[in-house]
Amino acid sequence: MPKNKQNLFDLTPYISEHLTTEKEENLSVIAFPRFRNKFMMRFFVPKNKSAIIRIRLDEHGSAVWNLINGQKTIKQISDALAEHFNHEENYEYRVAQYFQQLYKSGFVKYKK
Q1: CA 101 → CA 24, 33, 48, 75, 109, distances in Å?
Q2: Which residues pair with 109 in a beta bridge?
């Protein structure tokens, strides 16, 4: 992933294929299997644990997540969220940091 903030805004993110998005009230929940391998799922998921991990996003995270469609650049997503973030100072930086974390966690990929 580019380290330069300007280059980051030119990237077009899409949601990784192993994830699904669920809705809980007005928030998004990212869901994914604890293991991708069926053998691992069968034998290594503890009996009292779900085979699916769910991460509930907060209001801002959900707003960003809902705009990721593989068509919009990070800049376009950031611009669309200006009202949501009440044009607060450096909200673009927050969006950029959030995308870096999503990428590190394997939740988003970027089109080449």
Answers
A1: 22, 19, 29, 16, 11
A2: 14
Average pLDDT over every residue of 40-66: 83
The answer to whether residues 43 and 37 touch, using CB atoms and an 8 Å cutoff, is no
Beta-carbon contacts of 64 under 8 Å, excluding residues fewer than 6 positions away, are 77, 81, 95, 98, 99
Can you name the residues that pair with 22 across neighbouring β-strands?
29
For 15, list phi and psi in degrees, rounded to 5.
Answer: -75, 135
Question: Looking at residue 37, what is its pLDDT?
Answer: 67
Are 96 and 73 within 8 A, CB to CB?
Answer: no
Residues forming beta bridges with residue 56, ordered by sequence position: 29
pLDDT at 56 over 70: yes
Nearest to 60 by CA among 43, 77, 38: 77
pTM above 0.85, yes or no: no
Distance CA 76, CA 51 (A): 35
| pLDDT band at 53; cut points 50, 70, 90 | confident
